[in-house]
Amino acid sequence: MNDLLCDGFQEAVNEYLIRHKSILDVLSKLSESSGRVNRAVAKAVTSCGCIRIDAAKQSIPADIGSLASIRDYMRDHVEGELCEYCTEILEDEIGRTLFYLAALCNVLDLNLYNILLKEQERVTCLGIFNFS
Length: 132
Known about the structure:
There is one protein chain. The chain is mainly alpha-helical. The protein has one domain (about 10-130): Helix Hairpins (Orthogonal Bundle). The chain is built from four helices and two strands; from the N terminus they run ααββαα. It has helices at about 1-15, 25-50, 85-105, 110-125, and strands at about 50-55, 80. The protein has a two-stranded antiparallel sheet with strand order 1-2. The two termini are about 30 Å apart.
């Protein structure tokens, strides 16, 4: 089922992307859309205020029992929750980024679903040793 969704999305992008077919266009649009995601997060903090960034050095005790327990001490530095408006904006911007990611896959004759499967396998195989 998921492969149908992913393949269908990639096919729709291939069908409806007309103006920016060149790999150079796709790369620049992908980069631009990624920047717009970053900007939307910044606007949620600075303009709306629905979320707040409270960043500091991660504090991990020296006597930690295991590598797996590090997760308990790591913070994402985000306080609050996205409001409905900011959620909608971010979903739109992330969707646009996915659009151009699928377009890049199309230009390079790559299957997005297969890439997702390989990445999921890598992450689950490496588990906590995947330091991404």
